[in-house]
Fold each of these.
Amino acid sequence: MAEIKTKVTKASVTAFINGIASIEKQKEAKELRALFEDVTGEKAVLWGTAMVGFGSYHYESTRSSQKGDWPLTAFSPRAQNFTVYIMPGFTAYSDLMKKLGKYKTTVSCLQFKRLGDINTVVLRKLIARSVADMKKKYPH
């Protein structure tokens, strides 16, 4: 079994965000950090080299022998876009997705170019609902 590479680190989230080359992306990453901390009540923690996570849960895969810890929600300020990790996926949140703005999704990843492309009030609701759903599924 391959070990998961993305784990909690002791690296500074502030230093990571301040190291973003684009000043605009830095500013928006700081705004996202504050938004996530407010919504989740969790402090930001750097997972791996580029994922800012909030809270965590322990999982054991039913399809493989893989198990580990993962953030309840997270974001990553990538070069081309921001990626927000909504761990349950988006199926249960279609009401919110219709109002969110300009974005793309994959299984659990919400991608948008800039914060101004999406409705942050709706994003807050999406994060809150997804974290609540994850806490139900993975109670401590």
Amino acid sequence: MGRDGGRDGARGGAARRAGRLAMLPLGAAGRSVAGWGRRALGADADALALDALARNADQLFAVLGELKGGAMKLGQTLAVFETMMPAEVAGPYREALTRLQTTAEPMPAATVHRVLAEQLGSGWRSRFTAFDDEAAGAASLGQVHRAVWGNGLEVAVKVQYPGAVAALRSDLAVLRRTGWLLERFLPGLDARALLAEIAERTDAELDYRREADHQRAHAAALAGDPEVRVPAVVASAPRVLVSEWLDGVPLSHGSGRPAADEAERAERDRVAGALVELLFSSPARVGLLHADPHPGNVLVLSDGRVGLVDFGAVAELPDGVPAVLGRLLRMLADDDPGVTTAAREAGFLTGDTGAEDIAAWVGGMADPLRDEVFHFTEPWMRRQGLRILRPGGAAYRGTGRSLDLPAQWMSLLRVTGGWMSVLARLDVTVPVRGCAQAWVAGFADPVTDSPAVPR
């Protein structure tokens, strides 16, 4: 089915894909039983875990390969876990995610023109002095074209795929039914919560007018910042977004490869430091946090500034990071044994979970906050993954579920973990603690009590 299939075609295609997927879980169940048998015979548990991880990855990507747009949304989210994979699995995992995120077929020019006419009016061409019919980039919901606005400004025109709404929601429904496979692949993952968050976030991303509002808010709040640039919004409609074109090198170009020399390392550290300060300061300055942790959304501009693009996914924090959360992070970073009592008194903890369990679940999130500077590396991030991917790691999922944080705060923690994964792939050293002290309410406060927070 092409992109032009419409709502009924999208639903029919999703139903056919769901039928083909129905038989897939049987294979994973059989492999799981075989693994238990081999373990009973004395096979090495770690070797079995890695073998099962690789086999479950094959099946997971067989499922995702049938889903197109939904797979790309999930793939973007799962990319966070890449640096947490054991070395034996990280390579194939990375290749599979790359395939998922680069297989979208471009819309024909006639389809692009029709969407532009529907969204910007039949005279849409008169708004531009030039428009490139060949897409400059593709995403899960649409594609981007380079153009020149009537006033001579170079712009990026994001056009949503026809039928994207119905197809994507159908795909996400299939993913929710196969969520158990995600948990088998990533044992410490709460797949139900993750997929619910993706679905909620995707609903917000489907309306480009809302994305335009988020982008305008960032551009206004960060105007004049010497380290950061956000492209201006030129025009918007429900399925078309026109914004200033930024020329720059995506941060992904340096991701995963070592710095060539000290000068390149210093430049990476500088750019990473600007990104970290932007992420820590955004809730306080904008009331929003960019929630799509992908290095392709960060550009290094010719003047050295960091360009931030794609504001479809954001976490809304109108009052900034809550002070009580900042105080708890400070207690975790300082290994304060009172963190359990503080979390329970604030209403964030149920059951018998203790300080060690909380620290284990939060994992390396507190590590960068312990010292004045922190070196993000893939081996460090991989060590965090070992806690949940090795046998017994699934126990930490119970700790995560006993943390009764509001949904938007859980989203904040997941997004933070995602950006940490990006930094780990860049292999950078950043003064994270200073950024937290400057911008996160409560982090620099002495912890003298733990007032309950209104729910």
